[in-house]
Design brief:
Largest sheet: 9 strands, mixed
CATH topology of the largest domain: Pseudouridine synthase
CATH superfamily of the largest domain: Pseudouridine synthase
CATH class of the largest domain: Alpha Beta
Radius of gyration: 22 Å
Helix content: 10-25%
Number of domains: 3
Order of helices and strands: EHEEHEEEHEEEHEEHEEHHEHEEEE
Structural class: alpha+beta
Distance between the termini: 26 Å
Shape: globular
Number of strands: 18
CATH architecture of the largest domain: 2-Layer Sandwich
Strand content: 35-45%
Length: 295
């Protein structure tokens, strides 16, 4: 039992809650999520199972796509609909006003990390410090908004927008910043993650669906193999020579005609053996994902 499960997380569950559920369903302890999704948000949450937990750094780095509802007229301390209102505005925002300002947020931007977040300060989650009324140092991070599109208006001062962004982007902070840019104050009233990398909603399973598959002995149907979860990485095939395979698995270099890369999928013939790095035409395995044969 190893690979990635794309879970359709419902609002109300934390990412850790989902991990706990998957541990019970799979019957193994080695389970972790690849990228937190806020408790109030829904959508694609990638869960790594078994040895796939070692792939976290390679999976979490993927771009994310979201559908968000932004509501103008009120800003909250959590920047979403679950917080306390701290600012109000009577301004009515029109579709044209929103479309105009969205373009200003595309590209690389700097965000202030929200105090109600899972980021750390001296090893303590910021949301825990915020709830305890402890002082919190302002943290900033640079992220990239690859695209930011207007979808529709669904009510007065309520709109749907689509965001494609790099990892670590706070969509609720983006909504709050858009509100301030329009002088109308805003918060994120709903969030749906529609894709994480190349894995979208069509590949997801609800917790109940996974329980049913497990009871029927068909849980394997929901498992995305490690190599498929890493399909965004370049593929390098060293041939089917078993001596080359053994050398790589023993940590030795292999000469190859490829440009430098921090992460590639390494194959020996048809067998996926792990993740490697290439420097100065020398390939070395960074992560082994196969067994070692007796030669």
């Amino acid at each position: 039992m190893e690979g990635v499960i794309a879970v359709l997380k419902p609002p109300g569950l934390t990412s850790s809650d989902v991990v706990t559920d998957i541990r019970r369903i799979c019957g193994i302890k080695r389970v972790g999520h690849a990228g937190t999704l806020d408790p109030g948000a829904a959508g694609v949450l990638l869960i790594c199972v078994g040895r796939a937990t070692r792939l976290f750094d390679y999976i979490v780095d993927r771009n994310k796509t979201y559908l968000a509802e932004i509501t103008f007229g009120a800003e909250t301390d959590t920047q979403d609909s679950y917080g306390k209102v701290i600012e109000k505005s009577e301004k009515v925002v029109t579709p044209d006003m929103l479309k105009t300002v969205l373009k200003d947020f595309e590209g690389e931007i700097e965000q202030v990390v929200p105090i109600y977040s899972a980021a750390n300060q001296n090893g303590v989650k910021l949301y825990k410090l915020a709830r305890a009324g402890k002082p919190i140092d302002e943290k900033r991070r640079k992220v990239t908004i690859l695209s930011l599109d207007y979808i529709s208006q669904i009510g007065e001062n309520r709109f749907l927008i689509k965001i494609c962004c790099t990892k670590g982007t706070y969509i609720r902070t983006l909504c709050s910043d858009i509100g301030r840019a329009l002088g109308a104050f805003a918060h994120m009233s709903f969030l749906l993650r529609t894709a994480s990398g190349n894995i979208d909603l069509n590949s997801t399973y609800s917790i109940e669906e996974l329980r049913t598959l497990s009871e029927q002995g068909r849980l394997f149907e929901a498992i995305i193999p490690c190599e498929d979860a890493l399909s965004h990485l370049k593929k390098v095939n060293v041939g089917d020579d078993q001596k080359t395979r053994t050398r790589l698995l023993n940590g030795l270099m292999h000469r190859c005609r490829c440009g430098d890369s921090e992460a590639v999928r390494v194959y020996c013939g048809d067998e996926f053996i792990g993740i490697g790095a290439i420097r100065h035409s020398e390939l070395k395995l960074k992560l082994t994902l196969c067994g070692v044969r007796d030669e």
